[in-house]
Amino acid sequence: MTRFAIQRHYASMQPLITLGQNIRDAGRLEPALIELVQMRVSQINGCAFCLDMHSKDARAAGETEQRLYLLPAWRETRLYSERERLALAWAEELTALASPEAVSDALHEQAREHFDEEALVDLTLLVVTINSWNRINVAARTIGGHYRPAAH
């Protein structure tokens, strides 16, 4: 059972919606990379609604089922480009913040080989945004499984 309906509070959440749209509109991150990052962060945070949404959006945009299935084990496969792998590593470290060494200098140096500063800022904001949505949906206990692509 949900605790509150997010749709009723969209006005309050408009800054997050706008931020997400601005990241997409900037065009510095590929749509497939955006969906993979949102999926991976949502897996880490256990957000069923966001997993439902982003898996369906990814599939509607042409993502393969195989890449979605193997996403939790992305390090053990070569299905993802080096840029995607660095984005996933960045997203995981930024989501976990498990230590003062999180988002290490070494990872930053590797990421800068594939992302210019603006794109890396966009990637960071993308991770921040999906973490926020995960926390909102988990707090609201939003039920996953009923999302339809392009319905948001």
Automatic annotation (TrEMBL):
Pfam families xref list: CMD
InterPro entries, alphabetized: AhpD-like, AhpD_core, CMD-like
Carboxymuconolactone decarboxylase-like domain segment(s):
16-93
Q: Could you cite one Gene Ontology molecular function of this protein?
A: peroxiredoxin activity
**Any idea what this protein is called?**
Carboxymuconolactone decarboxylase-like domain-containing protein
Q: Which species is the source of this protein? A: Dyella thiooxydans
